[in-house]
Amino acid sequence: MPVDLSVSEVRDELQRAAGKEAIGSGQSATRLLGQMFHEVFADLCGKDPLRSGIRVVVDAAPDRDAGQQRLLSHTYHALVGPRLTRHQPLLQETTRQVLVFWEAIQHLTRWLTDLVWTALDATKEGLQTWEEIAALFTVDEKLTRELRQPDWSDSVRLVGITDALIRIPRTSRFCTIELKLGAGRPLMDLAQVALYRLLAAGQVPSSADSALALLHFAPTLAETLITATEVATVEPRLLALLGKMAGVATPPKAPSAATRPEPRKEPKAEPLPATRGNRTPAKPEPRKTAKNPAANVEVLRRSPARSVPEAAFTSAAMPATQSASHPPKNRPLGAAPPAVEPTPSPPREDPRKEAVATTPAGGSTSAAAPTSATAPLVTSTSATAPPASASAPAASERYAELGQKLVRAFREYGSPVDLLGEPAVGPRFLRFEARLGRGVTFDQIARRTKEIGLKAGIPKDPIISRYEGHLRIEVERPDPQTVPFASILPALGERDPLRGSALVPIGVDVAGTLRTADLASPINAHLLVAGTTGSGKTEWLRMAIAGLLHANTPETLRLVLIDPKLAAFTDLKRSPYLWTKRGLWTPGSGSDVDEVLDDLSAEMERRYQLFEAEGVDDLARYIEKTRKPLARIVCFCDEYFALISQDRQIRKRIEAQIFLLGAKARASGIHLVIATQQPSRQVIQGALNANMPCRVGLMTQSAIESRMLLDVPGAERLTGYGDLLYKDVGDPVRLQAPYLSPEERARLFKPS
Ligand SMILES: Nc1ncnc2c1ncn2[C@@H]1O[C@H](COP(=O)(O)OP(=O)(O)OP(=O)(O)O)[C@@H](O)[C@H]1O
To answer: Where is the composition biased (Low complexity) (predicted)?
Structure first.
């Protein structure tokens, strides 16, 4: 059975061995911009007519300049603008990076215009329509190749996703494109290219004749063609690294003809199609950088012997006892490390202490960065989930038994896994950490969740994700526990009669730590809550309100409650926390709901005038300066869909107000918390999507809804009862909402 390795694992290993951070680490804004750049590229070259940039250029033909202009405008309005707006809170401190990103996007549109015109010129193929040209592109293509070496005990299946494959017009050859935002690291690039070359040789038609192009947008474009001749210098060492990472390399012997990697037949390089801008050479040459020849020269001049990848190859290819910065793939985690670890890997945290980050079904996962609001809480106080039966022997035996059932089920389906210790016990789910068995792929496992759930007798399909190079399997806890609201109170702090508190409790993570959203922070200023009927939305809204009431007085907090179902907030009808007499809106209360929102907008403007008079720009500074409380106003809306589904005109007015408040109200101390049963495109797109990046995802009806809300599937496999995925920055984190019992509610919500 071949051992699977992905290109990104190998790339990260090279980075680590070179003593650098793994690719993909780094500032979240930088990562986000890189990801956006790839998404925009995929949209422009894809087949969706509403997003395609190819269509825009072809539609404008024969006016090439008009095509370029329209493409730029389309790219901004349809693809870049909405993404920037959506991520505005994260990006607002990084104006310079955003400008560089935009410049790179402009260069990308020029490159695409050139390429489309080259294709249009290829009259021999009779390419006329945008669809025909778009068919030349394959975006995010998954490539797989099984590699064998004489000194390997098993084969290695290498998997990678190339940014784009372009069939060169007039030939049947292919050019593999790797896209980079930012300056390249020439030798690291070379190593990556070598990996793709290995891959492409097994997959792409005519690959022997094909070229691999690196497009660096830094932000100007440098196109680099890399040929097999160059790749050949690093390929043997790369193969040695692959063998070592996969654990198939046999101990090194004195080199002999038999153990040397097979020499590769040198393929001819195919340049990128010559463009009208004449950036690419007409004739294939070993390596060409059209825009930035200096970069090429640098690559060729620098001695690979002292380069980053070279060092990595050298150390990685040595016997495990001498190098190996990371355990080989088949060494059990936790087994004795090699004697010498020149660049030790970061210590693995106790899984129980990690924030849960779930991107099921193939997505990569990482713990989301805590917001500034949560950080001190995490370390100082924590609301611990009831220890309950988690530590009782009977319960732990049941969990162990469940773990064994899972192991058997995986084995029966031909995808063996090894559990790594006992599960972490959350209030409603158990999280097992596991290692893939030899030759098993993640996709194989992810495809089998239903069967494995059934076989192991688990009511809901397990949620399986990747985390730090191993598997996370989350299953419903057989003895689910409720997190009582009272247990989180210490984490919410005491009442501050002047400033109050802007912390909204969200839920408790697997380690029992409360996560909160700080409404005063730009990232969490407004919240969108969604979940199917019975998932726990209304209870969540009540719990969030109770959390705010606990830490505020009516001088520091006021509520505006919109209750289309007439059921969510009735206990608060006479609460002193209501903002005005229109503070609780229900259908038939004598006004349209948009009037309530109008009142909030008017209050926002009034506050900004107050602030201006005091020479301050937000609520906190105003309070500090005047030493007088001014209540934060939080508008909770249950069932938003019911409000907007009645009348088109009212919907328009509501959306306009939400747009305004979402964009401007935070600094004035006015916030929106909006819940909907249907996180569908029809409901979310527009005002909500643009201004509410912070999301609470309870169980949804489908993976599509989950994706719409959280950008990833997974919420459809939650268990209900306040089991949720919370997303502010980074990947969603799985949390359990505390439960406010009717008695506590009556006590906290009573009119005083
Ligand atoms: N955090 C929680 N802990 C335990 N049980 C909960 C929790 N939240 C909700 N529940 C249970 O789930 C039931 C449904 O919750 P809720 O009424 O909030 O759902 P909903 O999503 O608002 O449904 P609908 O949209 O149909 O009103 C509650 O009656 C309660 O029994």
So the answer is: 356-396
Any domain includes 176: yes
Name the band, by pLDDT with cuts 50, 70 and 90, for residue 16. low
Instruction: Establish whether 533 is an annotated binding residue.
Output: yes
Residues whose CB falls within 8 Å of the CB of residue 436, separated by 6 or more in sequence, listed in order: 4, 415, 417, 442, 445, 470, 471
Whether 537 lines ligand 1, by a CB cut-off of 6 Å, is yes
- Model pLDDT for residues 543-567, shown as the tens digit of each residue: 999 999 999 999 999 999 999 988 8
Q: Is 186 in the pocket of ligand 1 (CB under 6 A)?
A: no
Give the pLDDT score at 127. 59
Domain check: are 609 and 460 in the same one?
no
**Ligand 1 pocket check: which of 506, 539, 719 to mutate, most ligand atoms within 8 Å of Cβ?**
539
**CB atoms near residue 571 (< 10 Å):** 16
CATH of the domain at 408: 3.30.980.40
541 and 460 belong to one structural domain = no
H, E, C per residue of 418-443: EECCCCEECCCEEEEEEEECCCCCHH
Claim to verify: residue 281 and residue 427 sit in the same structural domain: no
Q: How confident is the model at residue 264 (pLDDT cuts 50, 70, 90)?
A: very low
Q: Are 352 and 511 contacting, i.e. CB atoms less than 8 angstroms apart?
A: yes
The pTM (predicted TM-score) of the whole model is 0.54
**368 domain-assigned:** no
Cβ(129) to ligand 1 under 6 A?
Answer: no
**Residue 532 marked as a ligand binder:** yes
The answer to whether residues 103 and 224 belong to one domain is: yes
Total structural domains within the chain: 3
ipTM attached to this prediction: 0.97
Looking at the DSSP bridge assignments, the partners of residue 167 are 174
SS (H, E, C) 664-700: HCHHHCEEEEEEECCCCHHHHCCHHHHHCCEEEECCC
Domain with 640 in it: 504-749
Residue 461 Cβ < 6 Å to ligand 1: no
Instruction: Summarize pLDDT for 663-696 with one digit per residue, the tens.
Output: 899 999 999 999 999 898 888 877 788 788 899 9
CATH number at residue 534: 3.40.50.300
Does residue 711 form part of some domain? yes
Q: Would the CB of 427 count as within 6 Å of ligand 1?
A: no
Atom of ligand 1 nearest to the CA of 542: 18
Q: Ligand 1 center to residue 446 CA distance, Å?
A: 29
